[in-house]
Specification:
α1 crosses α3 (67-79). The chain has six helices and no strands. The protein is 53% helix and 0% strand. It starts with 16 loop residues before the first helix and ends with a helix. The chain is an all-alpha fold.
Length: 144
């Protein structure tokens, strides 16, 4: 980077994990550039690299928050996700989600009781048989 170009710190506009990782990378590049320009005699002011509204929310409008505190909080967020990935959703669902698969009787069982009900049940079962050749064979056998 040429010396005559103004150097501006990257502003942090979001607290998402991806934005913080990207900000940390750009922040290290900015600090290296400032150190090179100033021969390593510069104060590393983290607050100047934040969006003022976001910093105001984080610091609750108290501007005496030290840079180390802010950096500690950012690194805590960044390191809380392993390898930039989200935890296994399937395992989380398996542990925390339960499905009630019990079936309630709706009163239809009375249609299939007794002789007439047994005939109706057999008729419905025979009509639903697949393949068609099996269905025809069973129907022929039942007739005789």
């Amino acid at each position: 980077m040429a010396l005559f170009m103004p150097l501006a710190a990257q502003q942090l506009r979001s607290t998402s994990h991806a934005a913080l990782v990207r900000w940390r990378k750009l922040r290290h590049e900015y600090e290296d550039e400032v150190a090179m320009r100033c021969n390593n005699n510069t104060d590393k002011i983290v607050k100047k690299s934040f969006d003022k509204r976001l910093l105001g929310v984080w610091c609750d409008f108290d501007w005496d928050v030290p840079d180390e505190f802010i950096l500690t909080k950012i690194y805590k967020i960044i390191t809380s996700v392993k390898n930039n990935s989200v935890s296994d959703i399937a395992a989380s669902f398996k542990e925390n989600v339960t499905i009630d698969m019990t079936e309630k009787e709706q009163g239809w069982q009375e249609f299939f009781t007794g002789n007439e009900g047994s005939r109706l049940k057999c008729k419905l079962l025979m009509e639903s048989l697949q393949p068609r050749s099996l269905r025809d064979e069973v129907t022929t056998t039942v007739k005789y």
